[in-house]
Amino acid sequence: MPGLNSPRPPKDDWCGTPYIRLERDPPFARLVVDRPEFKNTLTPAMYFGIRHAVDQLNRSEDLAGLLILAEGETFITGGDLGNALDDTWDGLGELGMDVLPFDTIRRSPKPVVVAVNGLCQGGGLMIAMVADLAVASERATFRAPELLRGIADTYYGQILPRQIGPARARDFLLTGRQIDAEVALEWGLVARTAEHHSLTNEATAALTECCYMAPRARAEVKKVMDRFYGTFDRQSMERSLELEERSEGWRAFKERRAPAWIPAEIRPEGRL
After folding, report:
1. Residue 90 pLDDT
2. Sign of the C-alpha dihedral, residues 247, 253, 256, 258?
3. Is domain 20-254 given the CATH code 3.20.20.370 in the classification?
4. CB neighbours (10 Å) of residue 235?
5. Under a CB-based contact definition with an 8 Å cutoff, are residues 192 and 135 in contact?
6. Considering the chain, what percentage of its residues have pLDDT values greater than 90?
7. Where does the chain have alpha helices with state H?
8. pLDDT in the model for residue 1
9. Integer Cα distance of 214 and 138 in angstroms
10. In 2-79, which ranges are E strands?
11. Of 120, 164, 166, 161, which is closest to residue 144 (Cα–Cα)?
C-alpha cells in the first residue's frame, strides 16, 4: 500500500508526485515545484501533475487563478534524464508525450502566472511562455538546449518564432545560447521582471490584475491569442525521440561530454 507521499495517480489536490504540491489560498492556488536537489527537473509524473493542477484550478469555483513557482535557486530546468526512476505510478509509462502540460496551460480559461526565480530552460521555459504572464527574477537565466540533446522539439519550433520573432528564435534555438532576464524581457520571452526578493509578491500582483478581468470575456480573448501560436508537428517530435541522435544526446549529457555528432575539430570539452 503506497504511503501518503508515495507516487500514485493524481486525485483532488494530490498531483501524483511528492515533488509538486498544490496549495489553496482562495481566490488563488499556488503550484510549487519542489525538487531542488535535481534543479527542479520534471519527471513524467511531475509533468502530468502540472496538467492535473491546472484542471483542478478550472474545476474549482473558489479559485480564480494559479501561480506556478519553484523552491531553491532554479525554476524548472526541463525534463529529467534518469534521476528519479521511482517517481511514477501505474499506467503513467504508457502516456508518452500525453503527460506534457503545455496545451493545458495555454488553453486554461482561468489565468496562470509563472514566477521564474532562476535557471529556466526546456519544459520550464515552455511553461513560462505559454502561461498568461511570466514574471522573472533579476537573477533568472533562460535557455533551450533540446537540439543539444538530439530532440527535434517542434513545439519550440512552432512557439518561439511567434513569441520573439524568427531571427531571435533561430539565434536562441539553433545556438543553445543562454540569456539573462534583461534580454528575455527585451525579446518578449517574459512579460515583466522583478527584484529577486519581491518576485512572489510581484507575480501575485500580476495574477491579481489578471483576475480583475471579466472571466467569460477574458476566456474568449485568450482563445484568439492561443490561435496565434498554431499547432506543432507532434509526429516528427515523437519520431525524433526514438532516433540514435536522441540516444547519443542522452549519453553525452549523462557522461558530461559533448555529443559525438559535433565534428572532432570543433568539439568542445565537457557537457554543453
Report:
1. 80
2. positive
3. no
4. 9
5. yes
6. 89
7. 44-59, 102-106, 123-130, 154-164, 166-175, 181-187, 199-210, 215-229, 234-240, 244-254
8. 42
9. 31
10. 20-25, 28-33, 65-70
11. 120
Do 20 and 58 meet the contact criterion of CB atoms below 8 Å apart? no
As averages over each run of 10 residues, the pLDDT of the chain (272 residues) reads: 71 96 98 96 95 98 98 95 74 78 96 98 97 98 96 96 97 97 98 98 98 97 95 93 94 95 96 94
**Upper half-sphere CA count for residue 105 (Cβ side, 13 Å):** 28
| Cα 260 to chain centroid, rounded | 28
Cα separation, 165 vs 86, whole angstroms: 40
Q: Angle 16-238-39 (CA atoms, 0-180°, nearest 5)?
A: 45
Side chain identity, residue 172: F
* pLDDT reported for residue 24: 98
Distance CA 38, CA 80 (A): 8
**C-alpha distance across the termini of the chain, in Å:** 42
Q: Where are the domains of the chain?
A: 20-254
Q: What is the pLDDT of residue 59?
A: 97
- Pairing mode, strands 119-121 and 112-116: unpaired
What pLDDT does 120 receive?
Answer: 98
